[in-house]
Amino acid sequence: MTRIALFQSRTGIRPEANADALAAAVAEAASGGAAMLFTPEMSGLLDRDSARASHNRYHEEDDPVLAAVRQAADRHNIWVHLGSLAVRTDGEMLANRAFVIDPSGNIKARYDKLHLFDVDLPTGESWRESATYRRGEEAVVVHGTPVGNLGLTICYDLRFPALYARLAEAGADVIAIPAAFTVPTGRAHWHVLMRARAIEAGLFVVAAAQSGHHEDGRDTYGHSLVVDPWGELLLDAEDQVGVHFADVDLKRIEEVRRSLPALHHRRPIPEVG
User: Fold this and answer.
1) Is the dihedral of CA 182, 245, 84, 148 positive or negative?
2) Does residue 41 have an active-site annotation?
3) Candidate list 138, 155, 169, 238, residue with the active-site label
């Protein structure tokens, strides 16, 4: 049995305040006995004002939030999955990038979000991630974490089950889905999609989420979840900002796959005639 922690945050427009909140969450997770902390998508900054936000976006090596989390992981001897940061790239575009950090503060893996969210919602909200972010090019499984082999995804990736099948086939035991889900789509789809991805792949899903009304005016759904391979909810943080804990038993994966071996029965899909 492995204890993990999820930080359900309400990230704001000031990186220094967000860095302090993340460092405090790392300390709380470690003191609560967690082997690994998971944080949401865009843990370092949530700001719809592009002009203001441009002053708070950094290349990876200069990012103060990443530096603070690495230092906290080292100080408290804990693994951290930093759900994602918006980092500058060599070109004009940003990357929506996740980091896995070991207890010495070293970056063990990175993942850039594969699927970008471009949509006009009935509420009048409009999102165009592809106008700002470049797409990732690789699926990533990190070996040797406290939760075994950890597959990395981010938010909108959730809607593309082939990615989760690929990660499961590559040996993932747990898949992280850090998110900043909107409220309308969260109410409609969050729980059912999370449970579906866990059931289909026969593994654990860990989804640390943003929650509540943010400084930039947006609202996010919350409900950070841990789902087991049978689709059972081990944790639902509802709308409560803060650090939440769950215990994960990796032996459950083999138990479920023995009773429902769908992953082993998967076959290449023929062309449609």
Assistant:
1) negative
2) yes
3) 155
Q: Tell me phi and psi for residue 144, to 5 degrees.
A: 80, 25
How far apart are the C-alpha atoms of 79 and 214, rounded to whole Å? 27
Q: How far apart are CA 128 and CA 153, in angstroms?
A: 19
* 155 has catalytic annotation: yes
Asked whether 9 and 210 are in contact (CB, 8 A), the reply is: yes
The two three-digit tokens of residue 272, written as one number: 């449609």
Closest CA to 221 of 134, 139, 158, 133: 158
| 212 neighbors 219 (Cβ within 8 angstroms) | yes
Tokens (6 digits) for 153: 């995804």
Using one digit for the tens of pLDDT, what is the confidence trace for 201-234? 999 999 999 999 999 999 999 999 999 999 999 9
**Topology of the domain covering 2-259:** Nitrilase/N-carbamoyl-D-aminoacid amidohydrolase (3.60.110)
Catalytic residue among 60, 113, 129, 254: 113
pTM of the model: 0.94
* Domains of the chain, residue spans: 2-259
Residues 226 and 194 sit within 8 Å (Cβ to Cβ): no
Count each helix (H run) and each strand (E run) in the chain, helices first. Answer: 8, 17
Task: Name the active-site residue from 16, 41, 92, 232.
Answer: 41
- Is residue 238 flagged as an active site residue? no
Which pair of structure tokens corresponds to residue 94? 């940003």
Cα(182)–Cα(159) distance, rounded to whole angstroms?
A: 14
